[in-house]
Amino acid sequence: MRALTTSDLVTLGTDQSGSHVLQAIMTSASDKERGKILRRLEVRDQGDVWNSATVSQRQDIAKELDQFACHLWAKFALTHFVKRRAQWQEIQTDQTKRKIFSDILQ
């Protein structure tokens, strides 16, 4: 992964098969490694994709992002994060404990 340029990572992430590879890497990476990868995939690099897209491609991207954003907003309880930060932190801690205990019980 270190040998890949930011452009290569963006290409990998936007390719149908490559996105699965990138997802597998992100899932198996440590927090530190994930952070390094995410920093290399800064928002401004995604702006290059947007800037080079046609209007119809931008519409497709916007539709996908809208659906994706709604899903992530609910999945990550971001309303709690914005309005009730302490409760959100409590939810995150509970989920971490559940995962630890489920691993032990299996």
Characterization of this structure:
This protein is mostly helical. It has a domain at 76-106. The chain is built from 7 helices and no strands. Helix 1 (6-14) packs across helix 2 (16-28). The protein is globular. The two termini are 32 Å apart. The model has no long low-confidence stretch (mean pLDDT 76).
Beta-strand content bin: under 5%
Overall mean pLDDT: 76
Sheet with the most strands? none
Count of discrete alpha- or pi-helical segments spanning 4 or more residues: 7
Helix content: over 70%
Number of strands: 0
Low-confidence stretches: none
The topology string of helices and strands comes to HHHHHHH
| C-alpha geometry | globular
Coarse structural class: mainly alpha
Distance between the termini: 32 Å
Radius of gyration (CA) equals 17 Å
Salient structural properties:
106 residues, 85% helix, mainly alpha, globular
Reconstruct the topology from this structure.
Layout: H1 6-14, H2 16-28, H3 31-40, H4 43-52, H5 55-75, H6 78-83, H7 85-105
Helix pairs in contact: 1-2
InterPro entries: ARM-like, NOP9, Pumilio_RNA-bd_rpt
GO molecular function, one term: RNA binding
Pfam family, one: PUF
